[in-house]
Amino acid sequence: MNKETPETILVVDDTESNLDMILAILKDYDVIASTSGEDALATVREEPVDLVLLDILMPGTDGFEVCRRLKASPETRDIPIIFITAKNDEETIEAAYDLGGTDYVTKPFRPKELLARVKVQLNLQRVIRELDFLATRDSLTGIYNRRKFFEIAEQMYAGASDDLYALMVDIDHFKQVNDRHGHHAGDKTLKTITATIAGLLPEDALFGRMGGEEFAVLLKGTDRLKAAEVASLLRRKVAETLIDIGEVSPISCTISSGIAGKQEDIVSLDHLLRQADMALYMAKKGGRNKSIFRDT
After folding, report:
1. Where are the domains of the chain?
2. Which of 43, 160, 217, 285 is the most exposed place for a label (fewest CB within 10 A)?
3. 81-85 and 103-106 as β-strands: parallel, antiparallel, unpaired?
């Protein structure tokens, strides 16, 4: 989970000499310099930032207002903010933390202290990202686990009209893979098929493992024909995928899927997924390696 490129740090200070000093101290990072609060807010909206070093006393939109607005937005509220200022009275420090600041550095800067505080916050962010990944992803395949899938799916369902389609996907005869080749082969099969499916889905699709060899997909902004095309593509490409399980010959598997669309008589996300699951049952019962629509 460690980033391959340097973290991006936004430094906001209306004094050019302070910016030059901080840029020299943070030379190993990707630093963006800003001389005003409004410019800083615009920068954060336009590109991802890992940390903000924020002066408090600035003309116009001061540091406290910038922090307040960053913390009010779901897109930016988790960005750590280190306040930088010449003021060190208790009231100012308390206000900085109350607004959501994570640390506080006084001017004039001590280079080693500033660098150390920056490293602490960036390390904490890495740990948080790693913990979030572990809490939201399936440990074997790396896609969303059941809990996170439903969390995001509820939001997608609430914001969709009739352009939301659910696919329930199941690996055919998966038990035979485990029985014939062992659980290591089953794990490799799950990971390979999951990666194949993930690489074929639209970027805005939601993909999660429901348990065992069963997966769920939500497609938003599509129609019946396109949903059927996606299901057909997944089925065809999975069947063509050779899975190296460490034996002389690779194996291959097929999948079956059930499809259901959000309609007037669909009353909830659970209802939509149940309809897709019923269609999946029909596909399995009808001979497997099929994609079937559930028409309510």
Report:
1. 8-136, 146-293
2. 285
3. parallel
